[in-house]
User: Fold this.
Amino acid sequence: MENTTTSAIDKKLSQLRDQHGVVTLGRVLTLVILAQAGHSEAALEAANFASHEHPCRILVHVAHSSSEETRLDAQLRMGGDAGASEVIVLHGYGELAEPTETLFSALLLPDAPIVAWWPHTVPPPSPHTSSIAGIAHRRIMDSARSDDAYETLAELHRRYVPGDTDLAWTRVTNWRIQLAAVLDQADPAPVREVVVEGCGRSPSVVLLGTWLGTRLDAEVTFVNNPGPRRLDRVTLVRDDGEIVLERPGRTVAWLRQPGQPDQQIAMPVRDLNACIAEELRRLDPDEVYGEVLTTGLRDVRVAQIVDTAGELAPGAARFLAEHGGGRADGEQPAAPAGAAPADPGTAVPASEPVAQAASTAPGEDRA
Assistant:
């Protein structure tokens, strides 16, 4: 449908439902995706996958050039290529390149929750200034896929509102589950230090380390390793030895504990489909994420940031210098207890701000 209106789209939907016998009674929510031109299909594929578990109406707004003549084009998908959903793809040009509540209001399911998802961006200065964000029950962002991952994470930290979530946090769910299970079964010895190793460009590394450090009341060392994986290894340093959870590949993790044989654990890399399906399972605020993003980042005690890749991870270092709690005693950070030294290797004190952040490398999710 070219150069159309939302009322015409709504009428066409009714006609298609009558022709194909499709009903909307089973739709449990409206998922609104705010995408950039050329980047909508991956998000739509993930939403279609999630719709098999959460039947929904999917509204996709693809922003084109605001300098073109104002018009609205639409594409309607129902049936096989739409999963268990009905999909409306809106291409906005000119004044309609900016999504608004008015643009979507006629197409929202009545009396159904609204989830808004920004796959690559956070509208400046905050998603909450957007009228779409104002009516959404949940707001899904993805700091790792934005142009500046740590600047986006800082923005989410400053402007957090209950109902926000970040797929950088969703990607570490399996790590959190396994580590919580290990600590539940281990002797109740205190954890002195947490060492999180992974790609320094990934906000998932910072969020997981912050969660562990604040929950265990332990200092955290972040280690930037070479390679594309977002998370490589977590070490919990205790007086009776180290508990290590490491995933060297894509599907299997190794768990090492003092006095026990090494264990293999199925822990595959989570793709975008799995992350979106998880987020749509809950429509209430993620309180744990909210605590990590707000008070956690303020209170976490960062021992140091260690670089084993031969170049600093400026995004993580700068972000933690500005937002992390730092060393409570004000002393110079010591060498990490759970990380092997590297050559060349550089330790960056948590109190030392560094240069401009690097952007997250494109590609699949590897947390």
Q: What stands out?
A: The CA atoms of residues 308 and 342 lie 5 Å apart. The chain has two domains: 6-141, 173-349. Residues 327-364 have pLDDT under 50 and may be disordered.
